[in-house]
Write a structure and sequence with these properties.
Blueprint lengths: L1 E6 L5 E5 L9 E12 L2 H9 L3 H7 L1 H14 L1 H12 L2 E3 L3 E9 L11 E5 L9 E5 L3 E3 L6 H4 L2 H14 L6 E5 L3 H12 L3 E5 L3 H9 L4 E3 L3 H15 L4 E6 L7 H9 E9 L9 H7 L2 E4 L10 H4 L14 H13 L9 E6 L3 H10 L6 E5 L15 E3 L21 E6 L3 H13 L3 E7 L3 H11 L3 E3 L2 H5 L6 E4 L6 H10 L3 E4 L7 H14 L4 E3 L7 H10 L7 E7 L17 H17 L3 E9 L4 E8 L4 E7 L9 E7 L2 E6 L3 E6 L2 E6 L8 H14 L7 H20 L3 E2 L1
Parallel strand pairs: 9-10, 9-12, 10-11, 12-13, 13-14, 15-16, 18-19, 18-21, 19-20, 21-22, 22-23, 24-27
Antiparallel strand pairs: 1-2, 1-4, 3-5, 3-7, 3-16, 5-6, 6-8, 17-20, 24-28, 25-26, 25-32, 26-27, 28-29, 29-30, 30-31
Helix pairs in contact: 3-4, 6-7, 6-13, 15-22, 18-19, 21-23
């Protein structure tokens, strides 16, 4: 399929080939008919991508602070790699469309194939020929509503939620500052609700368009225009001023905020809908006791994964207007002719002309309010099979920048398939694999189309798809990597082992004892024990050297692993209950490291902590009598070193400081080991050993017995937290 995307680093905008998304449970696969270009939000994003690196930093100071925190904790080299991985990738555009249902996922049976649907979401309703959209971001289009008008529904929902935030009442008067696409829709909705409206915009055509839609008066925000609007408000409100002011303007000027204070009545409500500068003039806002409110996107449910992805609706008796109900309401207004958007359509273009359309909009050569992209009409005979959709090398996926080193003609190579290619895979695994002469990156599958295309473009995969099953059925592969979310690992590992191929899975191997039992049964049933888990710390060069200088493992040795994990971001998928706790997802790293240091398997775990904060203190006893303590803490400073390992025993002590420095004390002296070139947590070493074992038939780098024991110990930590007692592994 064709999809519009932009490289945030270079600013390049392209129509590229991408695999059709798989139809997942909880949503529907749509074939697009029309998608709407947001001439405000999207053009801001397009403009930002074309800025210099300094300009991007100024535009996103919040991201700069995160980068500086990462530098302090992980060092400049690791931070640079992460930042470049995020920047030098194609990102999608679009968030408002109308399309036809071509496939229905489990749990979305309220929709039918062939049904006309409006869809929302900047991760789902994209400028692409096909999109998978969750049910709560879809709304059926009523009879009589043209698909090109239904494509306005998402932007209409944004305007509608902004209007609701002001709580307007019949007979009141509103001022709309900024008459772009959102502002025009706010005017129409207010007029439909019986509210008298005046407006301000620097473009005269937009003022006339708003007046045509029912606004009493619209003018430019210059001295003459402001005087006219003030006079009109005096007449409409008997000198009181506007009951509510809607800030629907963008840019860096603080003028809209100042104008709001000037023209609002006492205790009026000021609603920020756009990305408006809000340097509130304290005296003016205090004197009138103005109520400043923000309008968050389409309405309640936005940014809540349980609502948007889980399909869990808010009861209407408690939350009357969710984002989906706002979509439905907007469509209902269109169906009953209470609202019209036809006059907002400035132009309609075929989607393959998108690059030139965006260029004209960005340069100002094309003045427009609403611009639609039109897609080829659906055909029942050519209905897609998303699971079979693949993009192979040679398709138009943008300029390739592979990291792969030249391969020697006689080099024996391992054909690798990847299921998942998120941030960790793209920054910590694939760059190393692309440089290994005996690794051949063959097939990558991700749930998001552009993620697969980005991995193909950057690392040289022959094939990109959106189906895990396509990778599992690819007979050209020798090994399969599973780098997906935690809750999917166990099932994918069992299915991959059944293919007879070697399997590498990122931690955790499993989240429950039942899942781990299923994996051991799969190994016994298939006879395939070629399994590796990404416990990479034991392969870190600095840690290996520290252990060599410390001396052989001893039952008398005691270890303490301090992990300053830091707080989770509000939108982190770790917060999803189905993915297990943070320690369940990450704790295996530390259990494995202590087990490797002790050269013994864990047999007992005792843990105390706070289930609400994810803080854990776990004592691990090993079969040879050695002990280790893991302190996994989430409330520390984000710039504090993440990992510190202390070891004592036999008159020696050693400390590893975040894989950047290691010290071994023995006798009256001590040796210091420092990193060169940034952190190395062992990913390259583990991958090299895994590939060598696969090609030569040598044992896996970590025995299955150890992988299982570490996983059971990690699960036992959770059980011990619940029971308050030691748990046997």
């Amino acid at each position: 399929m064709k999809q519009i995307a932009q490289n945030y680093k270079s600013g390049e905008l392209i129509v590229l080939d991408a695999p059709i998304p798989a139809c997942r449970p909880g949503g529907v696969l749509l074939q697009s008919l029309f998608s709407l270009i947001s001439t405000g939000t999207e053009m801001m994003k397009v403009h930002e991508a074309k800025l210099s690196m300094v300009g991007k930093a100024r535009a996103r100071p919040d991201q700069v602070r995160k980068v500086l925190d990462t530098v302090a904790q992980q060092g400049p080299m690791a931070t640079y790699k992460k930042v470049m991985n995020r920047l030098d990738s194609y990102t999608p555009l679009g968030y408002s469309l109308c399309g036809v249902v071509v496939e229905v996922g489990a749990g979305a049976e309220e929709f039918k194939v062939g049904q006309l649907v409006a869809a929302a979401g900047n991760e789902y309703a994209l400028h692409a020929e096909y999109n998978w959209v969750p049910v709560n971001l879809c709304a059926p289009v009523p009879p009589g509503v043209a698909p090109e008008h239904a494509a306005f529904s998402t932007v209409g929902a944004i305007a509608m939620h902004g209007m609701r935030r002001a709580e307007p009442q019949l007979g009141e008067t509103s001022l709309v500052v900024g008459l772009g696409l959102i502002g025009q829709l706010v005017v129409r909705l207010l007029v439909a609700a019986g509210i008298r409206v005046v407006g301000l915009d620097v473009i005269e055509d937009r003022c006339r368009l708003a007046e045509q839609a029912g606004a009493v008066l619209c003018a430019s925000p210059d001295a003459e225009g402001l005087a006219a609007i003030a006079a009109s408000l005096d007449e409409l409100t008997n000198g009181r001023g506007a009951d509510h002011v809607f800030l629907a303007a963008g840019g860096s000027s603080n003028a809209p905020t100042e104008i709001a204070a000037q023209l609002a009545r006492d205790r009026a409500r000021v609603v920020d809908i756009g990305k408006t500068k809000l340097d509130l003039p304290w005296t003016a806002y205090y004197d009138k006791e103005l109520d400043v409110r923000f309008s968050r996107s389409y309405g309640p449910g936005r940014y809540d994964d349980r609502y948007e992805l889980g399909g869990i609706d808010y009861p209407a008796s408690y939350v009357r207007w969710t984002e989906r109900r706002n979509l439905e309401c907007f469509l209902d207004l269109l169906a009953h002719k209470d609202l019209e958007v036809a006059t907002l359509i400035s132009d309609t273009f075929p989607m393959h002309d998108a690059s030139s359309v965006y260029a004209d909009l960005s340069s100002g050569a094309r003045k427009a309010v609403g611009v639609l992209l039109e897609y080829p009409p659906p055909s029942l005979e050519s209905r897609p099979r998303s699971a079979a959709s693949q993009v192979r090398v040679g398709a138009s996926t943008g300029p390739a920048r592979t990291l792969t080193e030249p391969k020697s003609p006689g080099t024996k190579r391992l054909a690798i398939g990847f299921i998942g290619a998120g941030n960790y895979a793209s920054s910590m695994l694939l760059p190393h694999l692309a440089r290994l002469p005996n690794a051949e990156l063959t097939h990558v599958a991700t749930t998001r189309s552009l993620s697969a295309v980005n991995a193909q473009r950057r690392f040289g995969f022959t094939t990109a798809s959106t189906s895990a099953q396509a990778v599992l059925e690819d007979d050209s592969l020798d090994a399969i990597f599973v780098v997906t979310r935690h809750a999917t690992h166990a099932d994918l590992v069992c299915r991959a082992l059944a293919t007879g191929k070697a399997v590498f899975v990122e931690k955790p191997l499993a989240l429950t004892g039942e899942e781990l039992d299923g994996i051991t049964e799969a190994i016994a049933k298939t006879g395939n024990d070629r399994l590796m888990v990404g416990f990479n710390r034991r392969f870190a060069p600095m840690l290996m050297k520290m252990r060599a200088e410390f001396g052989p493992a001893s039952p008398a040795a005691a270890t303490r692993y301090l992990v300053s994990a830091g707080p989770l971001a509000a939108d982190s998928w770790y917060r999803n209950e189905g993915e297990g706790s943070r320690f369940a997802g990450e704790g295996g790293h530390f259990v494995d490291t202590l087990s490797w240091w002790a050269d013994s398997l864990p047999v007992e775990v005792y843990a105390v902590g706070d289930l609400d904060t994810d803080d854990v203190h776990a004592t691990v006893r090993f079969s040879n009598g050695a002990t280790g303590v893991i302190s996994y803490l989430t409330g520390g400073n984000v710039r504090f070193p993440k990992e510190t390992l202390d070891v004592s025993g036999g008159g020696r002590s050693a400390r590893l400081e975040n894989f950047r420095k290691a010290t071994v004390w023995a006798g009256r002296s001590h040796d210091i080991i420092r990193t060169r070139g940034g952190q190395d947590k062992g990913q390259r070493g583990e991958l090299a050993q895994f590939i060598e074992a696969c090609l030569t038939g040598a044992p896996m780098p970590i025995p299955v017995e150890s992988l299982a024991a570490t996983t059971r110990a990690t699960i036992a930590v959770r059980d011990s937290l619940v029971t308050g007692k030691p748990e046997q592994v």
